Structure of DnaJ-like protein:
Amino acid sequence: MIDPAYQRLGLPAEVSPYAVLRAAVRALHPDTRAVRGFRTARKRFYRQMLCAHAARQAAGDEPNA
């Protein structure tokens, strides 16, 4: 099962991990990005998005499927 937060990014399967990271950063509210105490949670969120994307690429899913 694909993470719902990853699906909301709306990225095709063939994009680079850097593009996934940029989209994940933009998905967060600016106030959330500014809070220093949320740094660990933000890093965990970014890692989850990258792992979901890698799993989708490994499965060979079609874009936006």
Observations:
- The longest helix spans residues 39-59.
- The CA atoms of residues 13 and 63 lie 5 Å apart.
- The radius of gyration is 12 Å.
- Helices lie at 4-9, 17-27, 30-34, 39-59.
